[in-house]
Amino acid sequence: MRGNIQSAIQQAIDGAPERGFVESVEMAFTIRDVDLKIPTNRIQEEIRLPSGRGKPIRIAMFAGGEMATKARAAGIDVIDPSTIEDLGGNRQKARKTAGQYDFFLSEIPHMGTVGRHLGAVLGPRGKMPRPVPPTLEPGNIATGLKDTAIVRSRDRVTFHTAVGSREQGIDDLTSNAVAVWERVTGKLERGAGNIRSCYVKTSMGPSVKVEVIG
Q1: Mean pLDDT of 131-156
Q2: Does 59-145 carry CATH code 2.160.10.10?
Q3: In 3D, which of 175, 162, 165 has the Cα closest to residue 2?
Q4: Are 207 and 12 in contact (CB under 8 A)?
Q5: Are 43 and 27 in contact (CB under 8 A)?
Q6: Number of neighbouring beta carbons within 10 Å of residue 81
Q7: pLDDT tens, 90-112?
Q8: What is the reported pLDDT for 188?
């Protein structure tokens, strides 16, 4: 499959005009013969990309006191826990905040408050915060997330994720895409046999079909 994936990525990049920003390279799957009404059949994976995401990500943390200081020192934006309820009461502002960040972290005592007031906004986007115990450094967690791709099917047969950025080399993008392919197919009962189709594309470029074997 590696050769087929690499060929599709090369075609996708060659066929997409240069933009005034760094485009992501995305991989989309459509699966078949899988009952996604059953939650255990759904794809919900965090995949460490071997060549990284190729572009910066934004992380926010619900934290106060010393933990907030540590988060800021690690380049993490801090959201004051005292503002969570008000933020949850303003759906437009909550959606905007959810869209501004790729990942959220939270001190453990604030997880329940976040769930009550922001769960309806963050949950469907797969952005509920990761709890940070007082013994862990938020910067270490953030470092790991910078190379992480999230793949979530929910109850939909078609889903996608970014596997890197256009600025990365073809070999790096291929390694990332293969890691995603192997994790997704590894979660399916028939592996590649449950893949109806797979495409790759840049953010605004045309889709190129990956020849699926299996």
Answers
A1: 91
A2: no
A3: 175
A4: yes
A5: no
A6: 19
A7: 999 999 999 999 899 999 999 99
A8: 95
SS3 track for 69-111: HHHHHCCCEEECHHHHHHHHHCHHHHHHHHHHCCEEEEEHHHH
Query: Given the structure tokens 């934004």, which residue do they identify?
Result: 58
CA distance 129 to 145: 12
pLDDT at 56: 85
In this prediction, residue 144 carries a pLDDT of 85
**How does DSSP classify residue 188?**
S
Q: What is the CATH number of domain 2-54+148-209?
A: 3.30.190.20
Q: Where are the domains of the chain?
A: 2-54+148-209, 59-145
CA angle 26, 28, 33 (to 5 degrees): 165
Here the tokens at position 178 are 């293969």
Q: Which two tokens stand for residue 108?
A: 């453990």
Residue 193 pLDDT > 90: yes
**CB neighbour list of residue 92: distance below 8 Å, 6 or more residues apart:** none
Q: Rounded CA gap, 112 and 149, in Å? A: 25
Q: What local confidence, expressed as pLDDT, does residue 55 receive?
A: 84
Q: So what's the pLDDT on residue 214?
A: 67
* Residue 46 token pair: 């965090």
Listing from the earlier edge strand, what are the strands of the sheet with 77-79?
A: 77-79, 59-62, 103-107, 130-132
